[in-house]
Write a structure and sequence with these properties.
- It is built from five helices and no strands.
- It has helices at about 30-60, 65-95, 100-110, 120-150, 150-175.
- α1 runs antiparallel to α2, α2 runs antiparallel to α5 and α4 (about 120-150) packs antiparallel against α5 (about 150-175).
- Mean pLDDT is about 90; it is low at about 1-10 and about 15-20.
Amino acid sequence: MAKNPSKKNKSESSSGASGGGVGIHIGISDKDRGAITGGLSRLLADTYTLYLTTHNFHWNVTGPMFNTLHAMFMAQYTELWNAVDPIAERIRSLGHPAPGSYAQFGQLASIKDAPVQPPKALEMVRILVERHEAVARTARGIFPLAAAANDEPTADLLTQRLAIHEQTAWMLRSLLEE
């Protein structure tokens, strides 16, 4: 027998995640929403950290590939900048506050911050390949949580992010081939 989607799930809250206020009754339990937003918070931290690293490399790239990499890094950091808002808004849609400080991102991120000393151009490319692959792994790790909770909007967001990070890693990896 199919579940009646208009009936409230017993494990859904009757008050908002921040205590008091209107409850969230979207068919995903408090526990599942908490687990999913934990994963999305890590994805947000990774995405923002990668944005900063890519922007840093855009500013500091030098050498014979300057024009190509400067333009490529700008396209990449712009895409990453545009990605943080949908991730944060999905966290909010699930009833939790989105992390938004450097301290929070530092605790949540699975990737390292940009090197203090700008590396050579091809090392920048190598670093970005590794970081895009790491962000893809972070996104992929959230899928089981979203699938178990039938959270299609999160799964859709994750699919979009995975496609971008995997394609970007491939394009960057191509620059390293001889």
